[in-house]
Input
Amino acid sequence: MKISGKAIKFGKDIDTDVILPGKYLVLVDPKELAKHAMEGIDPDFPKKAEKGIIIVSGKNFGCGSSREQAPLALKYAGVKCVIAESFARIFFRNSINIGLPVIECEGISNLVNNDDDLTVDLLNGIVQNNSNNQIINGIKLPQFIIEILDDGGLIENLRRRINK
Amino acid sequence: MNITEKILAKSSNKISVKSGEIIDSKVDILMIHDLTGPLAVKAFEKIGVNKVWNNQKVIVVLDHQIPAESITAAELHKTMRKFAKEQTLKIYDVGKGGICHQVLPEKGHVLPGTVILGADSHTCTYGALGAFATGIGSTEAAAVMATGKIWLKVPEAIKLDIHGEFKKLVTPKDLILHIIGKLGADGAIYKSVEFSGPIIEKMSIAGRMTLCNMAVEMGAKNGIIEPDATTRKFLEGRTNQTLDSINKLKSDNDAFYEKIINLNVKDLEPQIAFSPRVDNVKPVSEAKNIEINQAFIGSCTNGRLQDLRLAAKILKGKKVKDSVRTLIIPASQEVYSDALKEGLIETFTEAGALVCGSSCGPCLGGHIGLLAKDEICISTSNRNFIGRMGSKEAKVFLASPATVAASAITGKITNPQEIEA
Output
């Protein structure tokens, strides 16, 4: 699975209250959630993301609340993949479960600038920065997680396994 | 093995497990609430199974947006009631329960040695009773409802060995804030945090819950404390399960920890987590002239009887400052009822505080007590992120019930040791 897009960078410890403020948790439609993605830190984010982008962030991306609405808002806003130095564990699992690819990549913050053109090779855990021709090794996801992402999320994966 | 590894070995039917290993674990209890539940129900309906794996093991709690503050919230609650009825699940509705993380232990759903998952990040609270407990998202909760299982990576463990005696009006909340300040918001990411030492052995279940509750604020997968006689005493009368094996559930003497941190609390001052980071922790003496608009005592971190008693001790016979809205929210109906019997509610109302019915309250900025632009709240809750409690231009400072009560009286962040109690 290869994913390409331009990078939008954020710092460390980006929490889910910033990714999707609590007051929007009553919204059910993911497209409505998407309108408020990253509202706590960059209200123009949905406009910047709509053509499909890749988030590059520091340590502990997605810390805080277990709200799945946070990765959902990102996915529907146009985020194709999140690359971070590390993730908060619930956000990491939630992203995979809703079919939003995530990859842990130490040192990524220093090797990517805003608007760099990236290609992520999820299967091999490699990020390629096409703007400066650098190859950055991330942590390869286990095969069963790749399968969940290939299926489009945990529910689709479970349906396939149950009906096998 | 350490206690977390022992629980996970048992739950995955293995003789032993090691950190880093991915296991397929059985689940003893799953909790969903009114904000994460509706998405879980929607996902569950797509899987194609009719019934949850075990209707005795899925618990529904309405606590975040209660009583319904909007038609949208009312619809979500309706969804949850309908699902609980169809699936014959235990549901703690408005007025029957309170905050999920208080209700589950109180009602005997949390037992030492079990695996508990909740669609809420503060599910790690239950480690206070010696359970392995961690938060998951809604889709994952749906999958657990269908299968009764989850994949887990066995976490590496950090042990905190804590010694000394607390000074007057210094509390477990000050301790956990201090620890988070030291380790950082990502200081225990993916890891298990085990609290031990003489001060933990003497600590009440309420205090232990405050510690484990905030383990997630340093990224931990779970917080855990070995169950003991205090745990047994808390559980007696709350469960009909046998509690015989409680004393055997301990970390081995040669258990592996990635890090063992020794701490002494004897010089610990009351602590404050400054806006907007939970790990931006300083002693209260460094919070100079910070005027507050709101003081909040409650939440799954500090809304228990012991917390309310402490706040009442400080507020007794005094008035909160005219310029401060003081909100006090007992964590559950049981806590509310006990506080009423002890006269604490009267102390609060006479002091000029508003006591609200049990719910998560303003903690997550859903409803009740939101903040306007440029307003400042001192709160006993667990998060102070930008926009957490309302306007993104408001600020939240975290502290113990004693510090919040003292600050409500003076109108600015205040060391409770300076208030006559």
Summary: Chain A has a mean pLDDT of 95. The longest helix of chain A spans residues 69-77. The radius of gyration of chain A is 15 Å.
